[in-house]
Amino acid sequence: MLNRKSLNPDDGPVAAYGARLRSAREARSWTQEQLAEEMECSSQHISALETARKPPTLHSARKADEAFGLLGTAPESFERAYRDMKNGSLLEGFPQYVRHEARAEEIRLFEVGLIPGPLQTREYAAAVEAGYVRRGAISTEQADQRVGVLVERQAALTRDNPPMLIAVLDESCIRCQVGGPQIMAKQLMHLVEFASLPNTALQIAPYTMGELRPFNRLVNLLTLTDRSVIAYVESQTQGYLDRESTSVMPLVRTYHQLQTEALSQAESVALIEQVRKGIS
For a Cys staple, 48 with which of 54, 159, 180, 225, CB 3.0–4.6 Å? Predict the structure, then answer.
């Protein structure tokens, strides 16, 4: 144990994979030699995987799933994690965020241009990914993977004792028509239904906020069971998970300012209904 290498799962997908493999092994009280026997490989190979010195292969991921009794399609399977890395279907940092999100006590979302994932209908999500396919950014297989991850992500948020889910959407989210009139009208109706749930809050940040809108791109804030808060933000090419209170707490304060300036939930629902009725 003196030579145990500290591994930060937020360092990247390979590090996150290694940390998960180590955590699963230790939960069974297995040594690396015992896991190696289960996976039919060497203990040196297990060590290299756990310390991110070697990336996983499809074969080793499937062997890990066999060892831990996971199905290849399970959201927490090692094969899924491998395919996410191999195919690049998800931004770096996002799989780690989703695992935290599934266990969070409170989730605060802000988005510009698109309805955020937890609030999307399946048809809307598929239309978004179809756009990436048409632009040649991802393959059809990757688009299907992304929609599948979203469905699993949404299911985790409807568990017993679900988290408080707070969403502030820029007005562009409800005015940018995705997938055609029928899909968009259904999506807007879904937002209205979302706002009526006991564990949700929905506000629109109207265009009239102008320069008072503090964020220009996606910002997600998670309050965990220990009351710590982590943030997830994205650039065009990368997601970033931040645990440092010195940088996260200013985002929390700014989010509160955003809520103060945004429309009330009643006003927001009225605006959504107005936009929905205007879709032709």
Answer: 54
Q: Bigger pLDDT: 173 or 143?
A: 173
| Domain residue spans of the chain | 9-87, 94-117+159-277
CA 18 to chain centre: 20
Position 2 scores a pLDDT of: 40
Domain 94-117+159-277's class? alpha beta
Q: What is the pLDDT of residues 42-77, one digit of tens each?
A: 999 999 999 988 888 888 988 999 999 886 556 678
Tokens 């490989």 sit on residue: 41
Using DSSP bridges, classify how beta strands 164-170 and 106-111 pair: parallel, antiparallel or unpaired: parallel
Question: pTM of the entire structure?
Answer: 0.72
Mapping DSSP onto H, E and C, the string for the chain reads: CCCCCCCCHHHCHHHHHHHHHHHHHHHCCCCHHHHHHHHCCCHHHHHHHHCCCCCCCHHHHHHHHHHHCCCCCCCCCHHHHHHHHHHCCCCCCHHHHHHHHCCCCEEEEEECCCCCHHHCCHHHHHHHHHHHHHCCCCCHHHHHHHHHHHHHHHHHCCCCCCCEEEEEEEHHHHHCCCCCHHHHHHHHHHHHHHHCCCCEEEEEECHHHHHHCCCCCCEEEEECCCCCEEEEEECCCCEEEECCHHHHHHHHHHHHHHHHHCCCHHHHHHHHHHHHHCCC
Instruction: Check residue 76 and give its pLDDT.
Output: 73
Contact 144, 132 (CB under 8 A): no
Question: What's the CATH code, domain 9-87?
Answer: 1.10.260.40
**pLDDT value at residue 87:** 54
State the Cα torsion 193-197-199-200 to the nearest 10°. Answer: 30
Q: What is the mean pLDDT of residues 78-86?
A: 74
